[in-house]
Amino acid sequence: MGCSEERNDALAAYTHALLWNLTRDSRHAEKSIAIMDAWSAVIKDHLNHNARLQTGWSGASFSRAAELIKWTYPGGWAGEQRFADVLRTVYLPKVLPGVADYNGNWELIMMDAAIGIAVFLDDRAAFDEAIAKTRARVPAHVYLTGDGPLPHPPPNGSKDTPEKLIKYWHGQTTFVDGLAQETCRDFGHTGWGFQVAAFEFHAVFDLGEPVPAWLCGGKIKPGLGPVVEIAYHHYHDRLGVPMPKTAALIERGRPFGTSHFFGWETLTHAENVR
Question: For the whole model, what pTM was predicted?
Fold first, then answer.
């Protein structure tokens, strides 16, 4: 109870923080602050089976909103320290430890939130720990030929036999460059923890190419979503890596709105090479 409300409010706080920066209408900054103050006044913990996932979803958006307000709003934020305390005591302890044996999107969004929170808190130790866990987890989420006949198992997890790994990869037994641990689940969750080879691999099928029988038994659930804007911006616009299939998919989907912890990536990332 309250999961979607918190997630939506976090996105709303981030949206208003963006609008403040774009329009310089202080009402947006004050609204973002009001949302964050309302949550920091009452939230004590996240409970139930998806507590760590929910903390990651909301923490990622809240930390972005807080960072924007902290450094750009000259009107001041009286509740900033209370919000920082909540991020440190309620959110960070849930996400920073990670979670090895769940689907990869869990730990990767948890690290996304942990990184954002650590930046806001100026906590270098937490930042370094989250970066290290992200770097360790991504190779276990996306397969490349150099990994060997089977994917890397999640660090510190229990997927330590071929049988367990194949079950963890949703029954997939043929491994090719760019295949991901959640490809045979759906592309939406899969895209939340990607790199270049995986985007190009999945974009082909999102664009409508027939699915071969060896891939997920010939049945997929397409829809990478707005994450493509973030990856294309970083790898293509900033680093110059060719991503033609991803580019075609982006043009089809623009402009992207909000979903879970995504918010306005066309606005914040498209052709922004600074």
Answer: 0.88
